[in-house]
């Protein structure tokens, strides 16, 4: 049971069109969000948490109708936890294009009266940040105590400091990168090809056919999951352990426990995640590159930032390696921006940012203790 208790998702509708980086617009859209804790009288204790690829607005606590559905960062956020909801007002917003309630490919396109499907406009990290800023405007929050995210969420936190430099005091960028490497883009493309070549994809309009491209989603998730784990963690968890006592000498049967685990993860993912959303979100990952408009010079790109930073990486994370976090740190130091950096020697790979690690949680707690003192929370 979560210490946060039951939380209720909320909805906010926007009739004003959101101009996107692509030149397209999104109009008549709804964003789903959750809040935890109380906003203080000065409205100075708000923390925005940005979600990663397959997560949602449900970052902590449970839902009354599904008490087993615990928020994805519940070990970090809640009463008495590193991000203490007794002191901070925490907001997590489901991004447009997602499949967890906010307007996305599974919703009706107001221009056609039909489901968007693959006609949903391509969205970027910058578009998400602009959408989140609109929610904060409605909530009457002009400046955040902090914005925090891991992985793709960390990219959003970084983008916040560049798009709205005066609207946050602190940024916590965890297990992230200033852009994706060619290898990362390659993994995303293989996952997308698995989806779009599934016969049930129907060019992204599979809803009308009453089918779901589950085979493609399964493979996409299996590929992704491999990249989130380290070689050491896979070895420790599964090794070369067989599923049965004897080899079946089959090219199609499951022989090893790791195969069984990946298929289970793929099956589970294909039941709840939308294929078009997967394509959109991996593209947003690919496109993120704030240094691009500065000729690839990250230091120049980061010159706009005014927040104090905490950057955290994990040694065995090869998807978002410590070297990529150090690029962010160097770019900040080049601009004499206040930054603390922690490189945690953890065996879990990229997934480490979601797991319990006393050193990691201790650093995050210390950061929020400092912020609380700063704002008198």
What is the strand and helix layout of this fold?
Blueprint: E1 10-14, E2 18-19, E3 25-26, E4 29-36, E5 46-50, E6 77-78, E7 83-84, E8 89-93, H1 125-139, E9 144-150, H2 152-163, E10 168-174, H3 182-196, H4 214-228, H5 231-237, H6 257-272, H7 275-287, H8 298-302, E11 308-314, H9 322-334, E12 339-344, H10 358-375
Parallel strand pairs: 5-8, 5-9, 6-7, 9-10, 10-11, 11-12
Antiparallel strand pairs: 1-4, 2-3, 4-8
Helix pairs in contact: 1-2, 3-4, 3-7, 4-6
Task: Give descriptors for this structure.
377 residues; single chain; Rna Polymerase Sigma Factor, Chain: A; two-stranded antiparallel ribbon; eight-stranded mixed beta sheet; alpha/beta; globular; Rossmann fold; 34% helix; 2 domains
Compact overview of the structure:
The protein has 377 residues and is α/β, with parallel strands linked by helices. It has helices at residues 125-139, 152-163, 182-196, 214-228, 231-237, 257-272, 275-287, 298-302, 322-334, 358-375; strands at 10-14, 18-19, 25-26, 29-36, 46-50, 77-78, 83-84, 89-93, 144-150, 168-174, 308-314, 339-344.
């Amino acid at each position: 049971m979560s210490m946060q208790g039951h939380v209720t998702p909320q909805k906010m509708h926007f009739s004003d069109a959101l101009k996107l980086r692509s030149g397209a617009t999104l109009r008549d859209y709804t964003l789903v969000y959750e809040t935890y804790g109380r906003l203080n009288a000065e409205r100075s204790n708000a923390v925005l948490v940005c979600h990663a690829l397959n997560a949602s607005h449900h970052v902590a606590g449970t839902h009354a109708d599904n008490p087993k559905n615990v928020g994805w960062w519940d070990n970090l956020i809640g009463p008495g936890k590193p991000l203490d909801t007794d002191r901070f007002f925490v907001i997590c917003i489901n991004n447009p294009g997602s499949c967890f309630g906010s307007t996305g490919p599974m919703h009706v396109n107001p221009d056609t009266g039909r489901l968007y499907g693959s006609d949903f406009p391509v969205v970027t990290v910058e578009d998400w940040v602009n959408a989140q800023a609109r929610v904060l405007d409605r909530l009457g929050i002009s400046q955040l105590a902090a914005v925090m995210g891991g992985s793709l969420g960390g990219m959003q936190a970084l983008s916040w400091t560049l798009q709205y430099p005066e609207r946050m005091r602190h940024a916590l960028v965890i297990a992230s990168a200033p852009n994706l490497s060619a290898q990362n883009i390659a993994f995303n493309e293989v996952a997308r090809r698995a989806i779009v070549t599934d016969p049930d994809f129907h060019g992204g309009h599979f809803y009308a056919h009453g089918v779901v491209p589950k085979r493609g989603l399964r493979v996409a998730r299996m590929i992704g999951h491999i990249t989130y784990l380290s070689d050491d963690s896979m070895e420790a968890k599964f090794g070369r352990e067989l599923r049965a006592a004897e080899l079946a000498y089959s090219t199609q049967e499951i022989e090893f426990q790791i195969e069984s685990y990946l298929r289970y993860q793929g099956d589970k993912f294909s039941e709840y995640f939308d294929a078009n959303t997967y394509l959109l979100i991996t593209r947003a990952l690919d496109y993120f590159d704030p240094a691009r408009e500065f000729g690839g010079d990250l230091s120049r790109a980061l010159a706009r930032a005014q927040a104090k930073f905490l950057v955290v990486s994990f040694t065995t994370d090869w998807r978002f390696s410590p070297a990529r976090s150090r690029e962010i740190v160097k770019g900040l130091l080049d601009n004499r921006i206040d930054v603390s950096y922690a490189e945690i020697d953890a065996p879990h790979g990229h997934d480490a940012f979601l797991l319990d690690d006393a050193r990691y949680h201790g650093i995050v707690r210390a950061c929020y203790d400092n912020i609380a003192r700063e704002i008198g929370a």
